[in-house]
Design a protein that fits this description.
This protein is an all-alpha fold. The chain has helices spanning 2-20, 25-54, 56-82.
Length: 101
């Protein structure tokens, strides 16, 4: 029961983060990098605590939550990079500049 609640909480947190970053590519990149960094920093402590408290089932559950956190962090980082505005060069055509020919 606790597993489903925690997984649902993580999923709801990602949905709310996605709603908060609509139209802000920089927020997605920064948020994704922060989540990946914090997950990699605290994952050993989290897994040891879950293993001590719940045994092998706790480690499985902890790995599932960590996979969701890392997957979401990488997803939002990639989504933020893809949504960055690009500088578009204007191509001159013959109709605009007849001296090109």
């Amino acid at each position: 029961m606790m597993m489903m609640g925690t997984i649902s909480f993580v999923a709801c947190a990602w949905v709310l983060f996605g709603l908060w970053t609509i139209g802000h590519a920089r927020r997605r990149v920064i948020g994704g990098v922060v989540v990946v960094g914090l997950t990699l920093l605290f994952s050993p402590f989290f897994l040891v605590q879950m293993g001590q408290q719940y045994g092998f089932l706790g480690i499985q559950f902890g790995l599932a939550v960590l996979f969701m956190l890392l997957g979401g962090g990488f997803f939002y980082t990639a989504l933020g990079w893809a949504g960055r505005p690009r500088k578009i060069r204007k191509v001159r055509t013959l109709s605009e500049d007849p001296d090109l020919f």
